[in-house]
Amino acid sequence: MGKSKVLVVGGTGYVGRRIVKASLEQGHETYVLQRPDIGLDIDKLQMLLSFKKQGAHLVKASFSDHQSLVDAVKLVDVVICTMSGVHFRSHNLLLQLQLVEAIKVAGNVKRFLPSEFGMDPSLMGHALEPGRVTFDEKMIVRKAIEDANIPFTYISANCFAGYFVANLSQMGTLLPPRDKVILYGDGNVKAVFMDEDDVATYAIKTIDDPRTLNKTVYLRPPENILTQRQLIEKWEKLIGKQLEKSSINEQDFLASMKGNSTPRRESLDYASQVGVGHFYHLFYEGCLTNFEIGEGGEEASALYPEVNYTRMDEYLKVYV
C-alpha cells in the first residue's frame, strides 16, 4: 500500500506548520487548506506559498461553504486538524464540527486526527473552571467523530517545550530565568515535555499504522518524563549556576487565579485564569503521568523507537 494523502487544516498555526513539514518529510502527498478569510495576513499567505514550494498542494475551502470542505476532504485519505484551542491565541475548537460533518458526507477518510495535542480530555472531567472549556469542547468533537463512525487517532502530547521548557515552566514568559525560579509545590510532580517537531513526527507516524486506529496515542518518551526540579537542574548545569528557588503552595497558586493571593491584586483576565487552571493540573495534580495507559491507548516512543526524540537538555542549549 502507498502512503496516505494528507489534508492539514490549520496548517499555518503553531502545530500545523510542523505537521505539514513532517508529512512532506515522511513522503506523504500533502494538501493544506487555504481559507479565503486570510485577508491581509501576509505572514500566513507567505507560509502557505512556502509549503507549495516544498511540494504541498494548496486547497481553497471555507468553513462557511460546506461543499468546499467536502470537496477538499475527498482529495485525501487522512485529515489532520490543528486549529488552536488556547485562549491567548485563538480558540476555534468547535469549528471542527463542520469539518466532521464534511468528512461524514465525503465518506472516504480512513483516519481523522482532530485538534488535540494536549492533555487527554477524557481524563479531565474534573478540570477547573474556566479552563475546563478546552476539554469539554474537545469531548464534544470526539463524540461527533465517534457518532459518525469516523476512524480516528487522538494525540496527547503536552507539554510543548516552547511554552514549558525554555521558561522552566514559569508563567508569563518564554525565556529561562537566570537568577530566581518559582517551584510549584515541592517541584517533584512529573510531567512530559516535548519538542513540537517531535510531536508532529510522531503524529504523522500514526496515520498509516493499524495499531493506532481508534486509539489515543500518548507521547511519553521516557527521558522526557521529568519533574520541574529536574528540568531546572538541566538548565543550572548548562549555565553553571544555581538558581534561587521559592515555592508556591497549591492554595496560594489557585488563589492567584481570582486575585486573592494579595489584598490589592486584581483578578486575572480570562486567558490567564485558563492558564492557571491548566498549570495546576499539570504541576500539582500530575495529569500527564498519574495514570497508566490502558487498552484504548498506545505510547508513541514504544511504537516508533526509530524516532530520535529531542531530550530537554539538548533543547535548552540554544537559550544559553
TrEMBL record:
Residue intervals passing through the bilayer: none
GO MF, one annotated term: pinoresinol reductase activity
Domain NmrA-like: 3-316
Pfam families named in the record: NmrA
CDD domains reported in the protein's UniProt record: PCBER_SDR_a
Keywords noted in UniProt: NADP, Oxidoreductase
Top-level lineage group: Eukaryota
Annotated InterPro entries: NAD(P)-bd_dom_sf (IPR036291), NmrA-like (IPR008030), NmrA-type/Isoflavone_red_sf (IPR050608), PCBER-like (IPR045312)
An individual GO BP term: lignan biosynthetic process
Family: Belongs to the NmrA-type oxidoreductase family. Isoflavone reductase subfamily.
Protein name: NmrA-like domain-containing protein
Organism: Vigna mungo
Organism lineage string: Eukaryota, Viridiplantae, Streptophyta, Embryophyta, Tracheophyta
